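Folding follows sequence. Below is one example:
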Amino acid sequence: MLFVPRESPLGRPGGVTRGGKWGYSGAAKPARPLSWTLGSASVFRVRPGSGCVGAARIGTWGGRAEEGSRVARAAQYACCLLGHALQRHGASPELQKQIRQLEGHLSLGRKLLRLGNSADALESAKRAVHLSDVVLRFCITVSHLNRALYFACDNVLWAGKSGLAPRVDQEKWAQRSFRYYLFSLIMNLSRDAYEIRLLMEQESLACSRRLKSSGGGISGGIETGELGGSGTPGRGLPQVAVKLRLRVLLLARVLRGHPPLLLDVVRNACDLFIPLDKLGLWHCGPGIVGLCGLVSSILSILTLICPWLRLKP
């Protein structure tokens, strides 16, 4: 499927526009600024030729740390999925032990690469406070605050597992970490649902306008409600089923037209299974956890490769 970038920013609640190809308004881009990051958010920028070589190197390290963390996450959940498959197929205990050890090392390496991400999340929360839309402001700010607490607990876990703080109760801190992670994901999905509802309302109004302008003669689409090529919508079907099917078609059209939103929904939905399983709220098993974590990690890496696929703000 080919997505053509718009010439003007897409309308967003609160005056927010999508980034990258979807929100670029045609203004001149800066000449490749370098940013120092602890995670993903910029702390300050360095102009090329300004002589700040150390800051430029730190900026490069921050970006590579973020990429390395996401790649390590994908490898970790791939090991989780592989270990589950080996166990089901009766692999040798020694091989299963090696896979579990590799998964543990990757998890510890991820925690090392994410040191300082709490400050990144707090900066993002401070920026989200200024959004004009009250629902977006609440969901995004609360999500970033919970991410900051999640990363802080993760740092404590890293100190305990690395031997710097051997007295840390790792089970207690892991439970706290996953609670904050779960609530952050709930806020993210709430934000996605809110944006989907707004976009569906806009699409429905646009369809109604097209119907009025054409005198109701458009065929074959959500606008007329044609489900099987007949002139009357849902002939022989209950009215509720007809309306439900039309809403599903409208939802599919909205998500197809907004790839960053679709990507964010799928990624958050996949991530949701991880804390639910770890907290014992819904036992999914290591196979489901590994598969969902791997899919989520691949989608996260995709947003690094194609920044316009990242949902903003």
Summary: The radius of gyration is 23 Å. The beta strands are 34-37, 42-46. Residues 1-59, 217-221, 223-231 have pLDDT under 50 and may be disordered. The chain is about 65% helix and 5% strand.
